[in-house]
Amino acid sequence: MGIIRETREIPLSELEIGTGQARLRHVDKDIDELAESIRVVGLLEPIVVCENDKGKFEIITGQRRFLAHVKLQKPTILAGILNERVDENTAKILSVTENLIRLDLDSRDLIDVCTLLYKRYGSIKSVVEETGLPINKVSSYVKYDRLIPELRDLVDNGEVKLKTALRAQDAASVAGPTSKSEAIEFAKEMESMSGAQQSKIVKNRQQEPNKPSDEVIEDARKGGRITQIQISLSSEAHDSLKKYADYEQTTIPDAARLLIQDGLGKSGFMEGN
Question: In angstroms, rounded to a whole number, what is the distance separating the alpha carbons of residues 41 and 33?
Fold first, then answer.
């Protein structure tokens, strides 16, 4: 399958995405996030290329890293150059193998890292700047430690769940610094709401930052159209879902909803919704 004969910077104008790419769907998904990460910490792993019959270099692995460099308007990208050309089948094998071994970090590991950085720097913004991760993800990873003292007290006393307190604080922070009175009001009202209603409060406040809190709460209670579905799970899957719900400090139905929405979002099917 060839070996890398040298590694050097190659002008983007001399590169072409090969036909042997394994990833053909949702190639542009989260490219902004990848580009931001590269902008902040640099390219951690070179792409792999080989020379083609057009006098250019064909990208074997790393097309998304290449696209991120294009978005950043960088002139070159670090690439490992194979000592020989590879056919389309071999290129697909190399591409799919690389994608299979590039596993995402476990969310618990990301929580640990982001929480550590939050404790060191004291703000979500600083963690975003240091890691290149999007602010919504950092906010979801840094949990109890970012709560204002008043909401921590509610969680410690068992009056509200951690997830509820986080959503309440997010809703009360849209227009600027967290409003303590609104955060407490949102938290206490949200505790008796479904996960969908809680999410609607946050979304409505983001869309209308200056809307009175009591109107936001009332709108969420009225709710929009929600479709209920019934699914059958194996006992093993149900036990796993229960563990996830306990970990997130929420109900099993809400945990299932979160997982479904997250999965649809990562697959690109929630775009525009």
Answer: 12
